[in-house]
Amino acid sequence: MTKTKEIVKYQGKFASFCEKNTWEYIKRKNNQKIVTIIPIDCINNEIIFIKQWREAVGKYVVEFPAGLIDKNEVPIQAAKRELMEETGYEGEVIFASPLLSKSAGITNECGYIIKINVTFKGDQNLQDNEKIEVLKCPIIGRFRWLKHLEKEKNTIIDGQVYLYLLNFAGEL
């Protein structure tokens, strides 16, 4: 493939729409990385999810808590901060993935998956523009819970959540 220069078609506040070698894609500003948190409540045998409105799909999305890694922050610190902000939960990190691609066909977004055994529930600390509902999914009965979510109007399930629940084995 012939190397050509990247053309920025549109520069927004948080992302750019680019083209290179006839390929169109979205780039996150400053190539900022993300964390996706899998919070497990081992005492109550539940997985913690969040539900929030996402303009890109025009629906509420059931997803794992997640967020951007701030400058001078390591993925585990960001995961603990984001988990507390979005859910009010704290806990112990038991797994951290290597850097992973999120959706390489359309974006340069990369991040880490951090699994946390939650031990304490406090209050959410949401930003002014966030309205996040905390959901608890029973580990036993997760398929019933998933089927119920599939029927909710104006709600869609994030692909990572669906895949995780279908293949839940406790390792990740």
Characteristics:
alpha+beta, 2 domains, 9-stranded mixed beta sheet, 18% helix, 172 residues, Nucleoside Triphosphate Pyrophosphohydrolase, 3-stranded antiparallel beta sheet, globular, single chain, 3 helices
Report on the architecture of this protein.
- It is a single chain.
- By secondary structure, this protein is α+β, with helices and mostly antiparallel strands.
- The chain has two domains: 1-30, no CATH class; 32-166, Nucleoside Triphosphate Pyrophosphohydrolase.
- The protein has helices spanning 75-87, 142-151, 159-166, and strands at 7-11, 15-20, 23-28, 34-41, 46-54, 59-63, 66-68, 89-96, 100-101, 110-121, 133-138, 155-157.
- Strands 4, 5, 6, 7, 8, 9, 10, 11 and 12 form a nine-stranded mixed β-sheet that branches.
- A hairpin with an 8-residue loop joins strand 9 and strand 10.
- It is globular.
- The N and C termini lie far apart (37 Å).
- The mean pLDDT is 90.
